[in-house]
Amino acid sequence: MSIAAMQARVREGVPLAGAWGIEVLSYGEGLATLRLPAREDMLRPGGTVSGPALMGLADVAMWVALLSLSEGRDESLTASLAITFLRRPPATAVLAEARVIKRGRTLSYGEVTLRAEGAAEPCAHVTTSWAATGSK
Amino acid sequence: MSIAAMQARVREGVPLAGAWGIEVLSYGEGLATLRLPAREDMLRPGGTVSGPALMGLADVAMWVALLSLSEGRDESLTASLAITFLRRPPATAVLAEARVIKRGRTLSYGEVTLRAEGAAEPCAHVTTSWAATGSK
Amino acid sequence: MSIAAMQARVREGVPLAGAWGIEVLSYGEGLATLRLPAREDMLRPGGTVSGPALMGLADVAMWVALLSLSEGRDESLTASLAITFLRRPPATAVLAEARVIKRGRTLSYGEVTLRAEGAAEPCAHVTTSWAATGSK
Amino acid sequence: MSIAAMQARVREGVPLAGAWGIEVLSYGEGLATLRLPAREDMLRPGGTVSGPALMGLADVAMWVALLSLSEGRDESLTASLAITFLRRPPATAVLAEARVIKRGRTLSYGEVTLRAEGAAEPCAHVTTSWAATGSK
């Protein structure tokens, strides 16, 4: 599946991803890199990207990483997501790098590192588990 | 501060809250109840409210609970947020009940229970910590 | 099952519970209260109960709360556990109150509040999910 | 500080580390690898290492990783710890690899990967934050 097709797949599956303009930059073998453009309505006072926007970006990034292991077919849903904010990101685009740590039959688990575009250090770190639908 | 004034305060502070139409139903003494109306763009395939929408709602609900303890002045930011999805909510409005468990000088902590409107059992549970700005 | 029988069941199932002298004070209907006596080998410098001791106590408390819903038969295992430390407990006994929030076929979820014996405010808060064996 | 001196420092600071025979295998530059020997009293029914033992090991491993950045002086305490169990470890020794993701003035954050000795895949994954004493 091409990157453009994956991006279309994700925006269809998660309407927020389209509304926010989330882009798929690369994906494959349990990894994925996504980008959230800078948007006025994603900011918090002080000019920092809002927490919900970062959480949504991380959630979508992990889904793409999972889809990369299943040829674009994955009906699992987020079972849990934990985010820790490490530094306030500036009001720029944000990159998310997702990595599947375990792909299981009923539960998968991975982590996502979020960075302001151009920054060396992460602004947030996420761990998340996904459950096969029907298993809860 | 009236409920209407609190709602205006929150929508100003977190533009997503306004874009999503989040309502403040009640607040006081470290508690807050908020409502996310049913919206087409918040859904996932299968007609369930998306994870990012629930996370955003919970994040805002905890902020209102914290504001209730400080007369509407609170410059702290989310330090971490962990959500566990318990049941897929139907495509209805969602209520969030937030409770401050600890109000500290540099770190506060609380929980948020999310329910589909009219449902007895929660669809998700959140714990979150908040850091005073300048303390990270 | 009597409280004494439940305590024996737990110490058999989790040898650490016996080694640490964990007591079952009460249990029933998805709730359980356990007690960790003050012990020299559970302390950290400064005279505070160590994190691993509190985590172990919370883990065992949730197991008892789950057992209370299944007549003492439960082969599920901890799938995840998240603890937030709120206040340093003094070097006293610690009480754990566990509550099952969701009992599911393959995944259950609950919370545990930890308090130094005699204290009004919690010293730590835990959320934890449990998976039926064979489901991972 | 030699590895032997670091191990002595840790066993002095966390008596459980000594009671469980936790060994420091290597450390430096925000990384640390520790080993928990197989022990009868660490097991759960079915011959798997107990959750509290893995949590305690991870907690100590992160402390060593933090100490590696501060020449063995670190008075911070665990603020939160979240563990996800990925596979049941066999009744063998367990290795923990800790990595500091952020070293902050008041809050530090990192992750720990746990593996049964000789296994390629992790049995558990931990994220944890640490607070400077006096900052809570």
Automatic annotation (TrEMBL), chains A, B, C, D:
The keyword Transmembrane does not apply. Signal peptide: none annotated. Keywords: Hydrolase. Pfam families: 4HBT. Its EC number is 3.1.2.-. One of its GO terms (molecular function) is hydrolase activity. Residues 46-122 form the Thioesterase domain. It comes from the Bacteria. This is PaaI family thioesterase. It comes from Falsiroseomonas tokyonensis.
